[in-house]
Amino acid sequence: MILYDLTIRGKTEREMEEVFWSVALVAISIVIVIAKLVCENVWLEPRRIRSVLEKQGIKGPKPSFLFGNISEMSSIQVQSHSDLDESASSLSSDHWLQSLFPFFQTWKKNHGPIYMYSTGIKQHLHISKPELIKELKLVRSLDFGRPSHLAKTLKPLLGGGIMRANGTDWAFQRNLIAPEFFHAKIQNMVGYVEESTMATIRAWEMRMNENQSVELVIDKDFKVLSADVLSRACFGSSYAQGNKIFEIIDTMQTALAKPSFIFGFLDLRFLPTKANREILKSQKEVETLILKVINDREEENRKMGAGTGGNQSGKDLLQAILEGAATAFEHNYNEMKHFIVASCKTIYFAGAESISLAASWTMMLLASHPQWQQRVRSEIQDTFGNVLSPHCFDDMDKFRKLKTLTMVIQESLRLYPPGITIARQALVDTKLGELELPKGINMWVFIPTLHRDPDNWGPDANEFKPERFANGVNEACKYPQLYMPFGLGSRICLGQNFAMFQLKIIFSILLSNFSFSLSPNYRHSPVYNMLLKPKYGMRIIANRVGSAEA
User: Fold this and answer.
1) Pairing relation of β-strands 442-446 and 514-518?
2) Average pLDDT in the 279-305 region?
């Protein structure tokens, strides 16, 4: 009996020992795998990327292990802000420009038009060489896409929409959305722009004093105007119905516009911090509101019969997305809903915000240059008469005659482009011109310095001179490929024609009714908040035409 017990005990101990060593081997294997992955991602992959570029003569600031050039970027940023005297910034100065990603400009002076730098384990390539940007504009390959860390950062704001998508997913969304901004479709939106602009005029008139003038914070009014146009033209609703969506998106935009998010310093969004909880809450709220818009449209379609989507002008963008998604995700309802919500989030963000800012900066420049304001007003009156009649913009032949207004808008987009960076990632090992690009490198183009480069635009690059565009973009500067207010390449803004069309109608109506001047309370301080915004608001004095000298 004793022998039996010893045998059983010995067997149990051996089994326990075997289990122990099995668990130990598994744990060691897991540690080895994790160590290998960490070594590859933290050490070997960054070294591989940098080695490929260094062999081609590309240099840059020396990175430190794990943190890259984050410390240097932060110190340059702090120094730039301490040197910036906002009160001294004038309209003809580019003083404010030094505060926008100042490390880009510092490193360009030290390392030339092409250089590399690091944020943690992420490797970046800054490009301002005209020949390479020209090559980047010509790229149609799906091998270049949105940087993965940036797509991840913007997910709460844009979902899986076209501004985040890559590869075939991006191509599908582009083919679905692009036709909705073809010329024939844009013409159907004329009425919406007219109606929304006239609503803005009525709101201003109600606020005017006995002298027929009023001070406006015009960037806020333009935001409501462009959001109303977008809501009517793309969603068959109005700004009032989508107001809460725009408010939440604006909050999320501010939260996600920090350099630490944009350049991928540290991804700590998984931590339950107050900021991360608020972003998650906003994400859920905006998706719930957009789902209501979608469900309301689907219910409307069921009542009316599919096709018009309740839009008297025909199928709008929301209807096109619904029908395209229904075909593409026929057997996956959840995927279809996610896609539709993401597409709508992208349109709400990109469609209204960029146009309102373009209008704000253009108005500031017109208010600052009364001679150009009068030239544009005279052109509008010569083309359409002193009083604009409803639907007068349906005449495309007349619309094309607004060349002075077009030049003014183009010059405004040069000096104050709403989007100030362009980012691409090499998704595979590839080439850009003669440059070998390793998979994973993130390429950055900083638009404001290119748009104000005296080597390209001449010694008057900081001045407002719309006449430089008299013969088109190709004759305006030495390297026209460096003019990119709507982005570049195959990922250029799909709504650029709609944006120009909308801006021309808005300014034609406004300048026919009002003259504008800068308010004494206006402080010129453009800042980065995912887009280029006036830090203290765009304060403008509006006078009824005829009540004051234009």
Assistant:
1) unpaired
2) 86
